[in-house]
Amino acid sequence: MNENIFRENLINALTKEQAHVSLQTALENLKPENRNKKPSADLHSVWQLLEHIRISQEDIIQYTLDPDWKSPVWPDGYWSTTDNKISDEEWNSSIKKINNDLNHLIKVINNDSIDLCSVIPHTKNHTYLREILILIDHNSYHIAQIVQTRKEIGDWRSD
Hints:
mainly alpha, Four Helix Bundle (Hemerythrin (Met), subunit A)
């Protein structure tokens, strides 16, 4: 196996448009007034989905790297409950944190001294690869929800 291609494929799955749109594309041109609009009372807004991605991604990455990390309480600690208007500052800060955390994980993936198939030392049987795959799967799922939410609230591009 070519290890460099393997690592590159993982990074591409996290950052590029493979079988789905990227987070950047999913959020592109969303009207600020629709950031916290829900298709129905029992569904999440784009903001809540974005924050869930941010919080969950941080949790997965920190769990992987920090033996002292304490995860948020499930499920409440993983979701924003605000229905307030989301400021540009809050919006941009969330996206910046997501990108910063993702860049941190990419450095880990690119670190040749880490065997991605090895068990993370402070876990019983979780590998780096497992955590990366969970993050790819999780982010993909919720990015699709963002697209669907935007379609349902009438704020999705028409191609």
